[in-house]
Every structure is written in structure tokens, then in C-alpha cells.
Amino acid sequence: MKGVLRRRRSRRSSRTRSESRRRLVSGGLEPVERLVAGLTVLTAILAAGTTGYVLLGLNVLDALYQTVITVSTVGYGDPENVGGRYQLFTIVLILLGTATSLYTIGVVIEMLFEGRLDDHVRRRRMQRSIDNLSGHAVICGYGQVGRAIAAVMGDAGTEVVVIDRDPDAGPDDRFMVLGNATDDATLRNAGIERADSLVLAMDSDVDNLYVSLSARALCPHLFIVARANSADALPKLQQAGADRVINPHLIGGAHMAAAALHQDAAEDGEH
Questions:
Q1: How would residue 45 be classed by pLDDT, with cut points 50, 70 and 90?
Q2: What pairs with residue 160 in β-bridges?
Q3: Which of 3, 102, 128, 164 has the CB geometry, 3.0–4.6 Å to 142, for a possible disulfide?
């Protein structure tokens, strides 16, 4: 198991470096984070501009008014008999304020065109709904196996929260947490501490093993069902805290062999 965990940490470190490189290429921040950063800097500039004009002799309202028209480049003219310090301060404010305003507007336009703003709002609403769930099932991995599990559990009336790294894999009719299931924060966002069961349906035995260890530490009473993709993973997943370990390849192969051996007993329409 130690060897498996070492390989898991190595893969996780490699994935982290890869994600860091992608974030560096894309500017280091997600669009929503860039928008928050832009608005924060713009607010700070407005506050600094107002304070500066007050120190230069304007009252608070006039100072705020002068700051807004300066940053927005509207410019209705300066008060009479302004000195050099006033002019230099206004020049700096125009440069900083205009650049920050254009940056923030650009981020908003980018988010609107790419649909990220609507997606962010939708995910925030979904997260609030997930925060109110209890006794639900958490499914890690929304591939073919995960989809089949979610469908059966949903038909049985169980609320399901799916965790997956792929934003395009999200089910439209189910709760989803976008992220890496190996991160404790992602598990908590899925309400793991209030959940009744956890199903590990990822196609990596190492990931399933790691998440089983993490989930058992976060929620000792949780019922964990894990997918094993190899025979060697079965005992390791059980040692990691999984209550049930299932190899879908063995089960599927045995079912297909039985259908071939007992042709007369095969159900009509069975695939």
C-alpha cells in the first residue's frame, strides 16, 4: 500500500505542476477571480482618489465626484486655481483608474461571451442546494460506470452528488461538484460529512484508494463502495476503509460468459 501511495503522491505532484503551468499560461487566475481582483483594485483606487482629493482641499462629496469623473475619463473640468500637486495626482489617477476599468470591463466581456458568468452563478446556486442535503450519496467519477450508478440510485429515490474534474461531464439533472475528488475540500463541497454513502467509480485504482482513505478519515460512519479495476486492488481498497469492493470487469465478464453458456436462459434484448 505504501508503494501505491507513493505513486499516488508522485502523480498528484505531476498533476499539480501541470495545472500550475496551465494557470500561468492563462494569466494565473480564473475569470471570476480576475473579476474580483479587478473590482477590488478599482474600489481601492476610488477610495485612494477620494482621500487624495480631500487632502488636496476638496470636501468628501466633491472629492468622490472628482475621482469618479477622472477614472471614467468623463472629465467636466478641474476646479479653479489648482496647483501642480493636484495636476500630478490627477494624471496618476487617470492612468491607474483607466487601466483598471478597462481590465475589469474586459474580464466581464470575456465571461459573458464564454458563458462563464452564467455557469459560475449556476454552480453557486447548486452549491447552496448541496449544502442543504443530508443522507445523500456521493459518486466520484462520472464515466460510464458512474453514470449507470447515478441512474440506478436516482431511480431509487436517492439524492446523488457527482464529483468529476471534467466540466463537460456534468449531468444536467443532478447535483455536481467540479473538482478533484482526491482533495478534501472537494469532498466537503459534496457534503461528504452529511452523506450516507460514497461510491468510488473512478477508473484509477490509485485515486479510488486515496479517496477511500480520505473519506474514511473525514467521516468514519460513511458506507463506502469502491470500484476495483484489477484483482490486486481488491484487498488494498478494503484495507483503506471500503466496505464493499466490486470489480465491474469481472462481474460483466462472468455475466457475458453465463449468457453464452446458457443461451436458452438469456433474456430477450440482453446486450
A1: confident
A2: 137
A3: 164
